[in-house]
Amino acid sequence: xxxxxxxxxxxxxxxxxxxxxxxxxxxxxxxxxxxxxxxxxxxxxxxxxxxxxxxxxxxxxxxxxxxxxxxxxxxxxxxxxxxxxxxxxxxxxxxxxxxxxxxxxxxxxxxxxxxxxxxxxxxxxxxxxxxxxxxxxxxxxxxxxxxxxxxxxx
Length: 154
Known about the structure:
By secondary structure, the protein is of the alpha/beta class. The longest helix has 20 residues, at 132-151. The protein has helices at 17-30, 47-51, 69-82, 102-115, 132-151; strands at residues 5-11, 35-41, 55-61, 90-97, 118-119, 124-127. The chain starts with a strand and ends with a helix. Helix 1 packs across helix 5.
């Protein structure tokens, strides 16, 4: 039997909106019992978590058209210790946006390219107030990532 896959969810929330999305992502991922899903706030996640995962979901509010400082801090702390060690790591992004969210997604993508990661799902961008439908979309993202890891799709 193959080794269980591990999905890491790293997020930051200030107002609670991205936190709602992160909880929904986690609920969806938990439906896939063949994958272990671990979630950490960006300030609490580190190199050891990143190196131990097989897939990654990154959540952030949009701040001034950019990702949160906390998520940027996560990247700053992990980039050099992980450099060259995570090539091809599948990842996806979820953003709680006051504006359009594309700036945050673009900048995360630039950093992810530096790590050598592979984006495996379109970014989930939720604008303004979070609705029940948005939470369902977040659950679907978590479930799809966990299932993809379990089946070896990515």
